[in-house]
Amino acid sequence: MEVDYENLKSHIFLRYGKSIKYYYECELVSQHIQECTKEYISPQTLRRILGFIKSDTNPSKRTLDIISNYCGYNNFSELKENSIEKNEQQFNIETISFIKEFYNIKPSEINDINYQKACGNIAKKLTNDEKLLKNLSVYLSKNTTSQIYFYERYPYIDGIRKEYLNSFKMYSQQKKTNESILFSNSIIFLAAYLGNEEKNMISSLNIINKISDNNIHPFPLARKIMSNILFAKHKEDSNLLEKWKKIAYETEKTLPRGNEKGVYFPYFQFIMTECFILIEDFQSAFTMMEIADIDYKKYNDGNIEDGYYECFDILKAYAYMLAGNKNIAKRILNKVENHKIIFIAQNYFLILRKIVELTLCKNINSNKANNIKSELNLLIKKTDFTYFKKYLV
Asked: pTM of the full predicted structure?
């Protein structure tokens, strides 16, 4: 079996958290491998692999598979497919070690907003560096803390048709609760929908609709209903569309209101408003917006991530634009500062904003309108959300 020892060493260093420079350290690595995998590899074998002892024979397949498992891969073949460039090795070792140590910290409680916001800073770094994310994806997808505080609390919508989707799919394969399966496949469905990929929509939807709604958080529950509404609209099936709209309204009535303990933001109504905006049903969007305005807080009291209220304002502006009330749409947009939009979906909501701004132009062929079209086109290319190309015509 052909072995790229430099790549193998790099993976071991990344997993261990630092380079192995001394002979005696192989004993410590051996102990760590046994702690993590419950399998034993002798220090002497590691010394051969790491180059402290010269050897003319390759390690056994079992040894290579154990090391691969230790590094977060299913087997050695999988590890071989993920090479680490030498000039990035030291940077990755230090950065990845830090990120792993961070996610090894368990929050004092599941809704610790300070810990969540700290995780947001880590998520920003990961989503802005594709190579770093690729190197960490196996670990992130398996670590119980990062499953929650990277993938679930910060689903990177802007990247769901890019490299991030591969990482997200790893998470979807690892965590198998009903809620996580529903949530992950709803995001994968959205990726297919925004890319006009019907086959992938159907594949995800089949999984989504097998999941019971019992004890599901309003956010993923809304994603399930949204997936079905979007698909019904895509297929131009009016009966199916009305069925799922009815389910949306009936489900909304059963949810806790914003004045109840632990309810800080109208997550369900927010997602459903987004859904109705995408199918340009402004009356249904207004229904959800009205509930949110009456029954929930209209400002961030510090208990949710920054940026969601700005996103909701863009949805409101879009709804007013669809209803023909351009003056109110413009007034709402004027108060939204782009840099405050939550980072996980900044480009997505900027696309929606640009569509509203384009519609508000008095002359669709003016310089202003053409500039907006250029900005919209760049955002569509950046995200690969080809669904929105129809607004450039």
From this structure: 0.80
